[in-house]
Specification:
The chain has 307 residues and is an alpha/beta fold. It is 42% helix and 14% strand. Among the domains are: 1-44; 111-271, Spore Coat Polysaccharide Biosynthesis Protein SpsA, Chain A (Alpha-Beta Complex), CATH 3.90.550.10. The strands form two sheets. Strands 3, 4, 5, 6, 7 and 8 form a six-stranded mixed β-sheet that branches.
């Protein structure tokens, strides 16, 4: 562990290269780096003493379910070693994000459910403890509770926080996905009422599911709480995938009776086309500076080039 962190932080080697060299999956190594930034104390490098008093225990207040798509990078072996900490895990090929999530739903026994992708992580050790009193009061009638999500770059630097009060988000939710699903808790009765995720979607199925609930229902925003970190070049934030995401948002809207695209969706689609064009024209190194120049011109703070 020490050598991997040293190679990344001191030698400035790319995270994917370090993960591959030292036997980590890319996602698990990013989480390791995030933990080190928050707790770089010497004991972080020490192996925990063996013995029954230090064996990992499952908390009755939470459960962790891992759905791996048949990785061959050592993830399965990690899951086997840490099986005692998991309520359920499986490592086998799947048909996409929502097929994997649907496989996990029957195994969840908790009252609230939060979905985290491979590069996502809870922002702080006490995140769930801070959420707990809010969740205890939310249902009924609310079945969707969310905070903010921090978008981070490859080196873990915070770029932007997304997530706003539902009183503002509800005004445009049926026009564009404006809730951070990574930082969102869903009551188990939501899936009992609406069924499983629609697996015909590849990247927009979470928005389609939330449309089932929130086109007429309510959500609750938890202010001043960052729930999760999310790398900006993941499946839903990478400029290369943004066009597909916008098409699937529109597909979800049509499915729920919103036949005519709104001006907000049209504007977001135009921006997605512009980002993809700049990315392909200028390349990975220069395009982020162009993105931020456009943000500054529109009165927003830069984040693509933040370290």
């Amino acid at each position: 562990m020490y050598e991997a962190l040293r190679a990344y932080f001191l030698d400035a080697r790319p995270s994917q290269e370090v993960a591959r060299t030292f036997g980590y999956s890319p996602g698990s190594f990013r989480v390791l780096c995030h933990q080190f930034r928050r707790d770089p104390a010497p004991q972080f490098f020490a192996s925990p003493p063996l013995g029954p008093q230090t064996q990992p225990k499952k908390s009755p207040a939470r459960e962790l379910i891992v759905l791996d798509g048949g990785s061959t990078d050592g993830t399965r072996e990690i899951l086997q070693r840490r099986a005692a900490e998991l309520a359920y895990w499986i490592s086998e090929p799947d048909r996409g994000i929502y097929h994997a999530w649907n496989k996990g739903l029957p195994h969840g026994r908790g009252e609230w459910i939060c979905f985290l992708g491979a590069d996502d992580y809870l922002w702080a050790p006490d995140t769930l403890e801070r959420l707990a009193p809010v969740l205890a009061r939310a249902y009924p009638p609310v079945r969707v509770v969310y905070g903010q999500v921090a978008l981070v770059n490859e080196r873990g630097g915070e770029m932007q926080r997304v997530g706003e009060d539902w009183s503002h988000a509800r005004k445009r939710f049926t026009e564009i996905m404006c809730l951070p699903h990574t930082g969102l808790m869903q009551h188990h009765t939501l899936f009992e009422a609406h069924g499983a995720f629609d697996e015909s979607f590849r990247v927009g199925g979470d928005y389609e599911m939330l449309l089932r609930e929130l086109r007429a229902g309510e959500a609750l925003f938890v202010p001043e709480l960052v729930v999760a970190g999310m790398e900006y070049n993941g499946v839903s934030t990478n400029p290369a995938g943004s066009l597909r995401l916008m098409r699937e948002f529109r597909q979800a809207q049509i499915k729920h009776g919103f036949e005519r695209p709104s001006w907000r969706w049209r504007l977001a689609l135009w921006k997605a086309h512009l980002r993809v064009w700049l990315w392909r024209s200028l390349g990975d190194r220069i395009a982020p500076y162009a993105f931020d120049a456009l943000r500054v011109l529109s009165g927003k703070k830069p984040y693509w080039t933040r370290q």
